[in-house]
Amino acid sequence: METYGADAVVVGAGVIGLAIARALARRGRDVVVLEAQPRIGSVTSARNSEVIHAGIYYPETSLKVRTCVAGRRALYAFLETRGIPHRKCGKLIVALSDGEVPAIEALHARGTANGVEGLERVSAASARTLEPALSPGVRAALVSPETGILDSHAFMAALQGELEDAGGRVALSTPFERAEKTPDGFDVFTGGLSAVRLRCRTLVNAAGLGSEAIARSIEGLDPAHIPVLRYARGRYFTAPGRCPFQRLIYPAPVEGGLGTHLTFDLGGAMRFGPDVEWIDAPDGYAVDPALAPDFEAAARRFWPGARPGSFQPGYAGIRPKLSGPGEPAADFRIDGPDSHGIAGLVCLHGIESPGLTASLALADVVASCLGVE
């Protein structure tokens, strides 16, 4: 088996792995990214709403809110300076019954405490003035002007380009098999057609849905420091025609997610979702057409103009979660040497939404954990 060397090996070429690898490479480290798939960002990073989140939903002291707010600001600057397609379209979170109004008020208070700019609590009448297609059943709304959308694939391509410009490499179709501890770092063994040994000082597990399995394949990592992932599949449906809204429309949040909401891409195509389906393993992305009436009913709560029978299956994504049904939402988890005691190793677990928004800030956290400033 051939042996190669690198300062750092990052496992996973999704948006998080690419952002981390770019950050390390731009700080002078020789970085190799291992990706089991034949393309970058083709699993979790390719199966989301492409929303830039403001930072409203998360507890004030959480890593999620810290990296979401800082990451959002960094992300808008990154997209703007590099000409990557995006739009700061804003969002309305709507109460669709009197019982949901307190949730909107709580989100306003939490978002304000989190430092989210421009949040405004508005009446039902004002919400319908902003978005005339909204249901007359709306009772109140929260306006989030900092929410936006982006071309996530162009963003990931830019991250890869800047990583490579700084001397880093992405090895596609090269699955991580195991890592052995050495006196100076790690021996990382890969599988597939390009089975090699990579000797490195630093190893970063940013494998998303595979982070638990990767962690269990790292020699010397105490199982007590490896969380059990839970998996929540979210399915999306699409609707034809021109989107009647200028802003994204979200209902009050539900257990496990943010509720079935309306987003659109940069071309204006509408999508509705995701729902929350707890599954045992991270496989299967089929969307059952028989679910269309449920999505139509959820959408019609805030958009009465939804045409019956018009919704079509879109796509599905799977979230790697650290909490299960009925449990409080868990924070992002970044385990560095201070946590598990292994020098040069960082494992990221439970990086679900708002991971895309937070990616650049998460990369800085990882670099700090490794003492790479």
Key terms:
373 residues; alpha+beta; 8-stranded mixed beta sheet; 5-stranded antiparallel beta sheet; 9 helices; elongated; FAD; FAD-dep_OxRdtase
Explain what you see.
The protein has helices spanning 15-26, 63-82, 101-113, 124-130, 152-165, 211-216, 292-300, 337-340, 355-369, and strands at 3-11, 31-34, 51-52, 86-87, 91-95, 120-123, 140-144, 148-150, 169-171, 176-182, 185-190, 197-205, 230-239, 248-251, 261-264, 270-273, 277-279, 312-321, 333-335, 345-349. The chain is α+β, with helices and mostly antiparallel strands and 373 residues long. Strands 1, 2, 9, 10, 11, 12, 19 and 20 form an 8-stranded mixed beta sheet that branches. A hairpin with a 6-residue loop joins strand 11 (185-190) and strand 12. The chain starts with a strand and ends with a helix. The model has no long low-confidence stretch (mean pLDDT 96).
